[in-house]
Amino acid sequence: MKYLSLIPLIVCVGGSAAANEPTVGEKLFALKVKPLFAEKCNACHGDDPEKIKGDFDMRTRDAMLKGGETFAEEVLMPGKGEESFLYLVTTRTEEDFEMPPKEADQLTEEQRWWIRDWINEGAPWVDDKRVAEIHEKFAEGVMVETSGGLTEDWTKRRYKPEDLWAYQPIARPEIPARNSTGSGRELNPVDSFINARLDGLGLQPAPEADPRTLIRRATFDLTGLPPKPAEIATFLADWKRDSEAAWNGLIERLLDSEQYGEQWARHWLDVVRYADSSGYANDYERPNTWRYRDYVIRAFNDDKPYDEFVREQLAGDEIGKRKDVEKLIATGFLRMGAWEHTGMSVAKVTRQLFLDDVTDSVGQVFLGHTLQCAKCHDHKFDPVPTRDYYSMQAVFATTQFAEVDTDWLPEENLGGMAEDRRYHVLRKKANDALLASLKEKQTRYEAEWFVEKGLPWKSKAEAKKAGATEEQLPNRTFKEPEEFGQERIGRKWENRFSWEMDRYKPVAFTVYDGKTILPKSQYGRFQMPKDPMAKGELEKTAILAGGSPFSPIDPVNPGVLSAVPGGLETTLPDSVEGRRTALANWIVDPENSLTARVMANRIWQYHFGQAIARNPNNFGATGKKPTHPELLDWLASEFVARGWSVKEMHRLIMKSDAYRRSTVAPDPAKLTEKDPGGISYAVFLPRRLEAEELRDSMLAVSGELNPEMGGIPIRPDMNLEAALQPRMIMGTFAPSYVPNPEPEQRNRRTIYAHKTRGHRNPFLEIFNQPGSETSCEFRDSSNVTPQVFALFNSEESLDRAIAFAARVLKERSDQGDEAAVERAFRLVYGRAPEEEEMRASLDHWHEMEKVQAKIKFEPRDYPTEVVREANEENTGEFFQFTEKLFVYEDYVHDLQPCEVDARTRAFADLCLVLFNSNEFVYVY
After folding, report:
1. Cβ neighbours of residue 579 under 8 Å, at least 6 residues apart?
2. Fewer CB near the terminus (10 Å): N or C of the chain?
3. Tens-digit pLDDT profile for residues 467-526
4. Nearest 5°: CA angle at 384, between 335 and 313?
5. What is the rounded distance in angstroms from the CA atom of residue 808 to the CA atom of residue 636?
6. Contact assessment for residue 654 and residue 190, using Cβ atoms and an 8 Å cutoff
């Protein structure tokens, strides 16, 4: 076992009368004030002598005593801390002189007091040698041995020991002494750690939740769907016979279901920023990223060991020798970030953006570290020198983009492609026809121009061939603004539509190793060269001043984070191939103190709604510390011991008392007093359904959910106003969003919905589905008014309620109104209604039937074309463009209010109320 190299605190115990003993002021300067000036002030007042702001130079004491152009000598008055403007401006009470200028950089009260007290002590200024001596004897904290910072001060900086928790080796902690749970079961080790904390707080844990609550909790956690009434009935019967066997059997059934992979892949896709488009100005579609999405689903369903899962995503092309299609698809992870390179981009900058993105992504996803903080300077808070950042980046210096032709995998779903392709071809043909008509006009205009000028040619091409001068060639292409604007749209769409045909081909969105060929622009797939080493630049990574690719300073070799145990002794190959494999092997090495902790922490988070280390992407000093550090280490060590099996971790966690607790505390007031942050796990914390769970559950309850797995992205219904809003891309419009024509396709699970970075589904967005620009470590769960409108008044909710009502009334057509209400309650809540609920439901249904009988509904009108208007940049005039929406010519709508009677619509009003209840929207 390799241990983190720490240089311990040296405590001064010498006599106070020593001649060289530093004064209070000198210690304040060396230990607090000088580092504070370097971090907060010197960027404007010292780092660049040619650009001293306000004429206030903070490089020396004499310079500071001279003051600046505004406050002169009053800036620093030794012995008068509270009167010196150096202190006063930090209080942010001097209007227009708040320092530091950015509110986000303002000093804490303690930091302001350091400056005040230092001035009161005479503002002593000691040289670097004396500073080093003071640090050696008096600095708090510990030093960490790393590959070395850009400055000696950083290299010798000290850290609070508690901020280095993630760098300590994972030492399997001793399980606390077992205590009684009251359940009669053998105590789960998870509970030993949890109960030890509860005992310390003097808290009594909540009792076990009832079995109906537990099956709903477990089913949502593992599948993202509500349990069916028949499944609940079976489980309750099993529970009566043997509760422990019933619970274990339920967990196994859910882990074996295909829906498990869909739910847990969704969590992973949040973290890796999965999207079906590239983002930025053009937001081009990525036609084949869906194969990566399906790879992740298969990986979770197959319980692929996590260490293997990591290796395949980082280096699947290397490991599989480019012959293993599954592994080629897996390395699509490296390209999940937003990326674009246009004719206006600087190729070297675009390349550097990718390298920065992938370096930081690997840090956050696998290592729980936001590495980009170290791009321009040594990390301000963690022992991550800039050298380590670029050493990690060097691993990817030979990594190049490629879309590679492969075979389809036997398990891949190719359904729906023919239908989808047919509409895509219709759009492409319409665009081709537009361009052909514009070309015809262009040819006619050219011929007219030559006639006007009395020249013998009929076209520009003919004139050029005949050797015509520039003055003899037409100086206009089109006449009308519509022609200029439509031609711009047509050319852009011609490129998009052609590239998007790759959606129906077995292309892997992947990478390869080789020299870097910087493109002039990129509006299509990347082709892998036959010889990756024949052309281009073999990149050599260097530390970049200010992160600029045009300012290399010091070359570096591929490497890892040196502060992690064993990091300084780890060497990675500098060969073109194999760098990523070596990095992946280091990441999943059991001695790496980060990887197992990070994933164990994520698994815990998705079960309990909060992580043990509360910032799953940031295990550094600015992240929240683990609430139960020994438990996290035990889980991490157990994760490795159980073969990196995620499903084993589910079994371990879900069989604990902590997971099975009720949400109601025995003594709520005492719980609030002793555990105001809700981190003790004395109760199970309720959670709201996430956006995808909410939509999928409504479809499941209404009977519309198509459980078909995998395949090309689907396009669910979207609010028409949002779907058809003009979406600008560089220089023109993007094609409109149109849903799948058949309900069977668009009513599949939301994980399969096309995820466009620049065009979010408002229903999902309002319920906190994250964007894919950055890694989502934890979803927000806001409670805002627009959610009410989305869930109660939207067409999405109305369609589901109508379908739900029609389903129930069909199933209970001959059993009376009470039977219909009971069936609805069992589908939505998994239980029968109480007497009062039954009475209120029947009253509401019958009252609404009277209302609905007076209302006449007309069929919804779906547009088959949309007209856009924009300002044409060549002429400055407005033009119009008409886009055909071919899907709506064949669109089969969901069941509509006009197609059912007043009784069904009234029952749908009741169903809508059930959908909006906390019992449906929350998991308890």
Report:
1. 394, 395, 396, 397, 398, 513, 558, 572, 573
2. N
3. 999 888 987 778 888 999 999 999 999 999 999 999 999 999 999 999 999 988 888 999
4. 25
5. 47
6. no
